[in-house]
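Changelog-linked ticket: magnesium ion example.
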Amino acid sequence: MANVAVIGAQWGDEGKGKVVDWLASRADIVVRFQGGHNAGHTLVVGNQTYKLSLLPSGLVRGKLGIIGNGVVVDPEALLAEIARVRAQGLAVGPETLRIAENAPLILPLHAALDQAREAARGARRIGTTGRGIGPAYEDKVARRAIRLADLGEPETLSARLDELLLHHNTLLQGLGAEPFSKDVLLARLTELAPLLLPYAEPVWERLDEARRAGRRILFEGAQAVMLDVDHGTYPFVTSSNTVAATAAAGAGVGPAAVGTVLGIAKAYCTRVGSGPFPTELHDETGRLLGERGHEFGTVTGRPRRCGWFDAALVRQAVKVAGIQGLALTKLDVLDGLPELRVGVGYRIGGESFRHLPAAPGAQAAAVPVYETLAGWQGSTRGARSWAELPAAAVKYVRRIEELVEAPVILLSTSPERDDTILMRDPFEG
Ligand code: GDP
Ligand code: IMO
Ligand code: MG
């Protein structure tokens, strides 16, 4: 019996939420292990649309959701999201959602610093979601974060706030932003404590028990490999490791417990925010992909940049994250395009590369080398079996498998939950 980790193989928004929701029917527990409410996952179930940022997508199936220690938790965002999905009829409470007691918290000062820094960067801005994700991870590594369990110890909380404010207020004032008052923060955290502490527990213990009882665990990644702080297009990345190996450290299980690694990729490619994107299209096709794919950020509403599928990039993601199978989403968006291009490598300063090198100058200068494939006239939208796919669509998928060196084991053909074709069950290993 295998567990499964689902991660993004491009720059995010590949449709992880849809795939996790779909796979959750086969799982018992769904665990978030990194990122925070920078993530935005849209799930379409019949006439209901759920937009989740921090809550594990399995909650929509009534499965136990766990927020692991690797996630940075904004208490206000969490409570607002819980209220929002409860209003849509989902049962979310301490019986259905558990949060690692050692998860670090995002405070208002983190978002303020994130935004002040982005403003100071001007044209060189990263294009963050402005939600304080980077500063919160910095505080965790700097050993001054407030963690969920600290809310139960007033003295710890007070001392931690002193240390945090000394650091942050100095920085904020240096950037021309307003400093924060300890009294105001302390009063709010004291109010929040009884609302949050009922969710807190050593989730590693529950996961260990679940594993020993043969329960199936689905690890839900946020962001994607090309936004990974080590393996992505640094510095235009998020502040956590997004690769599947993080599922172990970010939930408190051993590496063997992570199970099968399923990478999610769009049949084309998008990116939100700044940074290199070799196969980006600035033409009518790019505009068309954005329009047909409804490519607007779930979190910030920003239009997503669109381009051709970059097989060299996804191959790189397959290797560094140990992706064993690929779920290819949004195939339907390519319906009717006369021909399709797929990036197979790069030319940089007269040299050929099969991968995207780490140096930012080389990344910015990378010109994709394309292979051209035939498009298809028929529709793939809503297809639920291979047999329904036009021959050229099957060829496109098969060529992608070869180029990225991983099998496509799942195809998604619309936003709707059940418009999904499963070729191989990842829980079967
Ligand atoms: P995530 O961040 O990886 O969970 O992805 P998002 O939810 O941010 O973005 C993916 C978007 O594509 C959502 O609006 C989904 O409803 C939609 N979507 C997912 N799969 C498909 C698909 O196969 N076809 C189409 N047309 N839309 C899809
Ligand atoms: P999901 O889980 C797409 C991007 C931001 C920015 C960079 C850093 O929905 O796929 P951050 O706020 O994390 O410091 O921003 O990362 N980014 C995402 N892009 N999907 C996401 O999540 C993202 N989360 C962060 O746009 O470029
Ligand atoms: Mg998203």
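Closing comment: Example verified and attached. The first helix runs from residue 16 to 23. The chain has three domains: 4-101+200-260, 108-196, 265-428.
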